[in-house]
Amino acid sequence: MRHTVQLTITSLLSILFLTLHLAQDILYGMAQPGLSTLLAAVPVLVLWLYGTLVLAERRSGYIIILLGSLVGLAVSVIHFRGPSGVLNAEHLKSSGAFFFVWTLLALGVSATYSVVLSVRGLIVSAGAHRQRASMAP
C-alpha cells in the first residue's frame, strides 16, 4: 500500500479518535462544554481534515497532518503523564474508563504513525523538488 494512502487512513483515524476523546473529556468534566470548546476544536479539526483529504501529497498537506498528529500525540502523552497527568484513579473507576483509555491508546498509535509517514512524505517531496530544480534549464 502506498504511504500516502496509509497516511490518509491513519490521519483520518487520528481525527476520529481525537473527536471521541474530546467528547469523553467533556463528559468527564476535563473540558468545558460550550461555545469556547467548539470554537477552539472545530477549526483545528477542519484544517487537519482539509490537509488530509484536499492537500494530500502536497508539502502543505504533509505539514498540516504533521502538526495535527503532534497535537493528537500530545493529548495522549498529557493524559498518561503519571500522577500529575489528567487521567486519575477517579476516572479509571467510572463505567466508561475502558473506552476512555482505549481511545487514548489508539490516538497515540495512529498519531505517532501519522507523524512518521508525514515526515517521510516531506522528505520525499523535498527530494523530488530538488531533483526537478536540478533538471531545469
Number of domains: 1
Structural class: mainly alpha
Largest sheet composition = none
Alpha-carbon distance between the two ends:
35 Å
Number of helices: 5
Rg, rounded, reads 17 Å
Q: Which parts are unreliable, with pLDDT below 50 for 5 consecutive residues or more? A: none
Helix content: over 70%
Order of helices and strands: HHHHH
Gross morphology is elongated
Count all strands and give the number. 0
Arithmetic mean of pLDDT? 86
Query: What is the strand content?
Result: under 5%
Keywords:
137 residues; mainly alpha; elongated
Characterise the protein shown here.
It is a single chain. By secondary structure, the protein is mainly alpha-helical. The protein has one domain (3-135). It has five helices and no strands. Helix 1 runs parallel beside helix 3 and helix 3 (59-79) packs antiparallel against helix 5 (97-135). The radius of gyration is 17 Å and the shape is elongated. The relative contact order is 0.17.
Please give the structural blueprint.
Elements: H1 3-27, H2 35-53, H3 59-79, H4 89-92, H5 97-135
Concise description?
This protein is mostly helical and 137 residues long. It is 79% helix and 0% strand.
